[in-house]
Design goal:
Blueprint (H helix, E strand, L loop, with lengths): L2 H7 L29 H8 L7 E2 L6 E2 L7 E5 H6 L5 H5 L5 E5 L6 E5 L2 E2 L11 E5 L2 E3 L12 E8 L13 E7 L7 E9 L4 E11 L4 E12 L3 E3 L4 E3 L6 E3 L4 E2 L2 E13 L4 E14 L6 E4 L26 E2 L6 H4 L12 E15 L4 E19 L8 E19 L5 E21 L15 E21 L4 E21 L14 E22 L2 E12 L2 E2 L11 H4 E2 L2 E14 L4 E21 L4 E22 L6 E15 L2 E3 L12 E4 L2 E6 L11 E13 L3 E12 L2 E2 L9 E2 L2 E11 L5 E8 L7 E6 L18 E5 L4 E9 L1
Length: 815
Amino acid sequence: MTRSNIMRALPLGSALATSLALLGAAPAFAAEEAPATAPAAADAAQAGNAEEIIVSARRRTERLIDAPVAITAVTGQTLSQYQATRVSDIATMVPSLIAGKAASGSSASIFLRGVGSTALSAGFDQSVSFVIDGLAMSRGREIALPQFDIKGVEVLKGPQALFFGKNTTGGLISVTSNGPTDTFEAGIKGGYGFKARERYVEGFVSGPVSDTIRARIAGRYSKSDGAFTNTAADSYTNYIPDQFRTRNADRRGGGESYGLRGTIDAQVTDSFKLELKAGLTSVVDGGPTDTLERLCGGGRTTPLPANGIPTSPNTDCKIDGRADSSALPIQVATTGMRYARDGKLYADFKSQYVVLTGTIESDPFDVTSITGYYHFKQTDLNNVSGESYPASFSQYADFKQVSEEMRFQSKFDGPFNILFGAFYAHGKFVFNTDAYIFPVPLDPVNNTYVTFKRDDGFTTDSLSFFAEGTLNLTQQLELSGGARYSRESRDSYQRALPGHIAFAGAFLPKKDLNDKYDEGNLSPQVTLRYKPSSDLTLYAAYKQGFKAGGFNISQALTAAASVAAGRYKSETAEGGEVGLRALLLDRHLSFNLTAYRYVYSDLQVQFFDPVTVSLTAGNAGKLRTQGIEADFNLRVPGLDGFSLRGSAALNDAEYQNFIGQCYPGQTVAEGCNQLPAGGVFNGQDYSGRTPPKAPHFAGRAGFTYETPVGGDMSLRLNGDVGYTSKYNFTDALRPDAVQKGYAKVDASASLTGKDGLWTVSVIGRNLTNKLVVTAANDIPFAGGTGTGTASGTVADMSAFVDNPREIFVEVGFKF
C-alpha cells in the first residue's frame, strides 16, 4: 500500500484524543511499584493496600488484580527515591530487562526476556519499543531521553498487538509523565552525585488556571564530569606526520542535559476533555563510545595491533572503569568529514514531541483520539578503538513522525462490549555516515581523509485497524478476543558519496540502492479470565505480534552490496501465557505468577564484520522463549510502615533452526563449519544456543520502612538487591564475551519535614560497584583473521559499560 493510498484510507483530521491512563499494572513488583495511572492508587500501594491499585493496561479502568496482563510498573516515587533518570537505571528494577546505549544504528541495546533488536541497524524497528505519554516510538534513540517528573513507567512483556498504537513483538516500555493538579503545587529539588561529579536541579509548577483549565510545567537540568577515568595521553603524534591527537577529556561519561515539559488540560464540556502535552530535550555528552572499554579477544591480556600499528600503552584488557578516549586529529576532522566538528568525541541529541489527547464521553461509545508529533536529531563523532587506532565515524540522524490514533469503546448494558479503532503514522528518517578507518595522507583530489561517505534513509507509512470484543460468559468468566491488521510500507535508499580516492575500488563512490517494501499482517489475541472471588484471578492468553521487514540502510556500499542482499523479512511472534493474581493474608499480601512461551519466527538479526567493515542484516529461523515470573508485595502485619517486596524471572531462550554468521577469527573447530564458499566456511549453527542478553535468572528483593521521628518529621528507608545471571553480550555469541552473574545493591534514606514541605535524601545506586557490559562490538582490524579456517585470531572488542557506584545527596522543597 502506497503512502497516498494510506492517506486516503485514514485522513488525519481528527483532533480529539484521550490519554485513558496509559497502561498500568505491574505485577506489583514492589510496594512502591504500583502502576502510575492514579496517584491515590500509588499511595495505597505504599500502604500495602494492593486491592486499591487501578490500571488501564487494556484501555479500560480496572484493578490490578483483575487485569490479565504481564506487566511490571515502577512509580515515579520509586524512580525519585533512587534518582533513576535514565532508561538504564530503570532496567535494573525490571528482572530480565537488559538496556544500554550503543554507538551506531539505533544507538540502543534493549532486550526483554532475551528478545531485542541489534543496536547496529539504523533501519530496524525495535522489538522492544517505547510509548511516551501515549505516543508510540520505535527507533531506539529514545533511550537517551532523561526521565523527570514521571508518574510511572510500565514494562509490558511479550507481543503487544492491540492496545498501544503500533504492533510490537518483544514488549514495550511506556512512560507517563505527571499531569496538572486540581490545587496549586510547586516543588524544586537539587542534588550532587559524587562519582560523576553530577550537579542537577529539577522543578515543577502545577495547578488550575480557571474553573475548566489546569496546567503543569516541569523541567530538569544536569551536568556531570563523568564517572569513568580517561587514561589517554594529553597529546601525541598520530601515525601520519604532523598530525597530533589529544585526550578527549580528563574523564569519560560526562555530559550536560536539560528537559522541559508543559501540560494543559481543559474540560471543554461535561463530556469533552482535551489534554495537550509538549516536551523538548537536549543531551550533549562525549557520545556512546566515550564509555567504551577494551576487551581483548580469546583471553589475551595484551591488545592486538591494528593493521600493523602498535597499540597504545594506555589501554588494557579489563572492565575496570579505565580506558583511553582520544580525539581525532583536527586536520582529519575539519577536512571533508561531516559532523566531526573539531575532532573531540561527542553526541548532540535534540528531541521534541507534542501529544494532543482528548475524550468524548457519550452513549453508546466513548471516543478517544491521540494526535502526535515526534522529532529527534542527533549528530555525533565516535571512536571505537581509543588511542590504538583511528577507527572513527561521524553520523547524522534525523527522524520526524506524525501519528493519529482513534479508539471507540462501547458502554453496552449487556454482557458484550467492544473496543475498536485505527492507527496511522508517517515517518521520515535520514541517516548519514562518514567513516575514517584507515590512516592515510590527504586525498588531493577529493580533499579529505575520510575512507567512505554514505547517505541513507527511508520514508515509512504504517496503517492499522484493531478491534477487541469482551463477553462476560458468567459473573466469574470473561472471554475477550480481537486482532490488529497492520499495513507497513517503506521506501529506503542508500547513496555512496566520494571519499578518499585510495578506497574508491572498495567503497564505490557512485553506487545507489533503492528499495520499496510493502506488507500486511493480521495479529490476533484471545484471553480467558476466571475470577472465583474478588481477590483471585486466573487467566490464559494467546497472542501474536508483528514487526515490519525492510531494507538494511547500514550495509557497506561495496561491489557486493545489492538491493537483494540488503532486504530482511518481517519478524513475527506467536504464543501464550497463563497467570495467577491473588490477594492473601487479609489483603496484606499480593502475589502474582505468570508462565509464558513464545516463538519468534524470522527474528531480525544483524552482524558487524570488522574485517570488511560491513553490516549484514537477515533473519534467524526461530527463537523460542519460555519461562516463569513471580512477584510479591507484603505489608507486614503488626509493623506499621514496613513492607517487603520481591520479584524473580526464570527465562529459557533458545535459537531454533538458525544458521548465521561466524564471529571474526572463529575457526572450524570452534564451530564455523557451515556455509562453505571459496575454500572457507562462513556460517555457524546457532540452533539450541541461548541468544545474547538473555540471562536464565534475574531477581530483585527489597524493603521500605517509614516511621515518624521528632514529632513532625518522618524517616523513610529503602533497600533493594538485584541479581542477574550470566549472559553473552555479542550478537555472534563469542565465547569470550560473557558477562558473569552480578548483584547490585540500591539504598536510600530520606528525612521529610512537616506536611512534606522539605526532604533531605542520601541515595546510593549500585553500591556493590559492579561494572556491567550491556553490549560489545568487534574492533576493526584488531584481529578477526582466519575465519572459517583451521586457525584464526579473534578480534578485540569495544564494550559498552553500565554506570559504576553512584552516591547522591539531594535536597527538595514543596510549596
